[in-house]
Design goal:
mainly alpha, disordered C terminus, 2 domains, 13 helices
């Protein structure tokens, strides 16, 4: 799968028209996947009457995909739609039809971002949209666009913040934990951790593992990293399911949970040498983005760099593909669109 990114970026077909087609195919595939997830989630909701079946990991369970990962795909879909290559390359549609489809996809993906409930992505998305508005619109139109976007954000915050729903619970869950647990050595299996408590605890374990194994320079190896962290969970008496059911039990609790920070994950796996290599890769990508002059490249690189602070995507094949594919795809975006025939002219968002 990783080779696909190099083929798209290095192939002679990576011109303006082909790039538009690629963005169109990506957007439509994302639409199809989202609709399938929504359909299955709605059927489950009809049976259970549990609104949580419509959100977060339950929503993407039909395609066996992590909701946070999928929200990154959706965010990049929004970025591509708002780029100058975002108009769907569907020539049988009239000019106004392509414009309507473009904005319909944009609105739909915004709705999916809410349903996927990734807190980080729901914060990053409006910031990117506001930046695009400042860059694309004239001063007069910018004021109107900002007023509309700002009003929509305030309405959404008011609706979700003033009622008992999954979104408000997701943000409120951050403050539910107790920071004092970070000083504890052992816990009860029923101890509740907020998402930030568990992350801070995992990061503390990273330091303890590196100190115990003298792994600061070269790490403890990718093969031993997760086993050592799992042993920390067991020694601390954190919830690990029912051991009587065996190692292949369905409910393993915290077992298998990584460090939820790619930089720390890399540090434990490969030491300062590996962390320096990861930082060097980002430095090269940002330098490439600057040289390319593509604003969308900055959106993608910054999103991934920030995302790595709270997740460890490179521990999964999905994350490796995402990290290899999107940066190379976006930095190779053609700088200037070649004028197309009148019946397939591009629509600029302005």
């Amino acid at each position: 799968m990783v080779a696909i990114s190099f083929v798209f970026c290095a192939g002679t077909f990576a011109d303006n028209k082909s790039y538009r087609r690629l963005i169109t195919i990506y957007s439509l595939l994302l639409l199809a996947s989202s609709l399938y997830c929504l359909f299955i989630a709605w059927r489950h909701y009809q049976t259970s009457k549990d609104p949580y079946d419509l959100f977060y990991h339950a929503l993407t369970a039909p395609i066996s995909y992590n909701a946070v990962f999928f929200s990154v795909y959706v965010l990049f879909g929004i970025v591509f739609l708002l780029s100058r290559y975002g108009e769907p390359a569907i020539d049988f549609l009239p000019k106004w039809g392509r414009k309507v489809l473009r904005y319909a996809l944009f609105v739909f993906f915004l709705g999916m971002m809410v349903m996927l409930s990734s807190r980080l992505m729901m914060v990053i998305t409006p910031l990117i949209i506001i930046n695009i508005i400042f860059r694309r619109f004239s001063y007069r139109k910018r004021k109107l666009a900002l007023l509309i976007v700002g009003s929509l954000i305030l309405i959404m915050v008011g609706v979700f913040g003033s009622s008992n729903n999954f979104i408000s619970w997701r943000f409120g869950e951050i403050k539910e934990g107790q920071i004092t647990v970070l000083k504890q050595k052992q816990f009860d299996s029923t101890t509740h951790f907020s998402s930030w408590d568990s992350r801070l605890l995992q990061w503390r374990y990273a330091i303890e593992i590196l100190n115990a194994k003298n792994g600061w320079v070269f790490g403890v190896s990718p093969g031993d990293c997760q086993n050592l962290l799992d042993q920390k969970y067991i020694d601390a008496h954190m919830y690990v399911g029912d051991p009587a059911e065996g190692p292949n039990r369905h409910n393993r609790g915290y077992l298998g949970f990584n460090f939820h920070n790619q930089y720390i994950e890399t540090l434990v796996q490969s030491g300062l040498v590996g962390l320096a290599s990861l930082v060097a890769i980002f430095a090269l990508l940002f330098a490439y983005a600057r040289r390319s002059g593509v604003r969308e490249a900055w959106f993608v690189m910054l999103t991934i760099a920030i995302w790595f602070l709270v997740e460890a995507p490179l521990t999964l094949q999905q994350g490796v593909f995402l990290f290899c594919f999107f940066p190379l795809l976006v930095v190779n975006m053609p700088r200037k669109a070649v004028p197309e025939p009148k019946d397939s002219a591009k629509i600029a968002i302005n």
